[in-house]
């Protein structure tokens, strides 16, 4: 497994967002690290994004195309959080959906722009919609803006 693909995707996604938002990324660099057994998929820490290995490492000899798409999509998602979540953030955790919703949407646009041959925009839109329907069908479904009443905290499904 290698970071070669991630090293291509990261800078291109940052450039895409800088042009899209017309706002330069303010830090002198953006580090990304794969952590064995990292429980979350990834975390958009300011200047140091942490990833589960499967979402940063890719080897064209042994990895699937689905894995390659996941790596590109998760990197694009976490880098989108540098704008939605880090530069601009919601007033309180009850509206975390704003961070996640826009980061997910922007990641779809970035992956489509970086890899137009994948035609992934419609697939991601349909996949995200089906995922929302799936969660919304559960008895444990909650409003988009919500606070867990037992602990007074909000637990997002995605980070
Ligand atoms: Zn996120």
From TrEMBL:
Compartments reported by the entry: Cell membrane
Cellular component, GO annotation: cytoplasm; extracellular space; plasma membrane; side of membrane
Superkingdom per UniProt: Eukaryota
Gene Ontology process terms (BP): peptide catabolic process; proteolysis
GO molecular function (one): peptide binding
Alphabetized InterPro entries for the sequence: Peptidase_M1 (IPR001930), Peptidase_M1_aminopeptidases (IPR050344), Peptidase_M1_dom (IPR014782), Peptidase_M4/M1_CTD_sf (IPR027268)
Topology in the lipid bilayer: Lipid-anchor; GPI-anchor
Main location: membrane
Keyword tags: Aminopeptidase, Glycoprotein, GPI-anchor, Hydrolase, Lipoprotein, Membrane, Metal-binding, Metalloprotease, Protease, Zinc
Protein family per UniProt: Belongs to the peptidase M1 family.
Protein name (Swiss-Prot/TrEMBL): Peptidase M1 membrane alanine aminopeptidase domain-containing protein
Classification of source organism: Eukaryota, Metazoa, Ecdysozoa, Arthropoda, Hexapoda
């Amino acid at each position: 497994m290698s970071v070669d693909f991630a090293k291509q995707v990261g800078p291109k996604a940052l450039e895409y967002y800088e042009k899209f938002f017309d706002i330069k990324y303010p830090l002198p660099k953006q580090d990304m690290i794969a952590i064995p057994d990292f429980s979350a998929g990834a975390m958009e820490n300011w200047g140091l994004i942490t990833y589960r290995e499967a979402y940063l490492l890719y080897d064209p000899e042994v990895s699937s195309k689905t894995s390659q798409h996941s790596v590109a999509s998760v990197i694009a998602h976490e880098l989108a959080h540098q704008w939605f979540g880090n530069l601009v953030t919601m007033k309180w955790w009850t509206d975390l959906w704003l961070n996640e919703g826009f980061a997910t949407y922007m990641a779809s646009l970035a992956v489509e722009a970086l890899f137009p041959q994948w035609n992934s925009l419609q697939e991601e839109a349909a996949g995200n919609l089906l995922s929302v329907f799936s969660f919304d069908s559960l008895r444990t479904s909650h409003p988009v803006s919500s606070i867990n009443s037992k602990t007074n905290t909000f637990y997002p499904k995605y980070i």
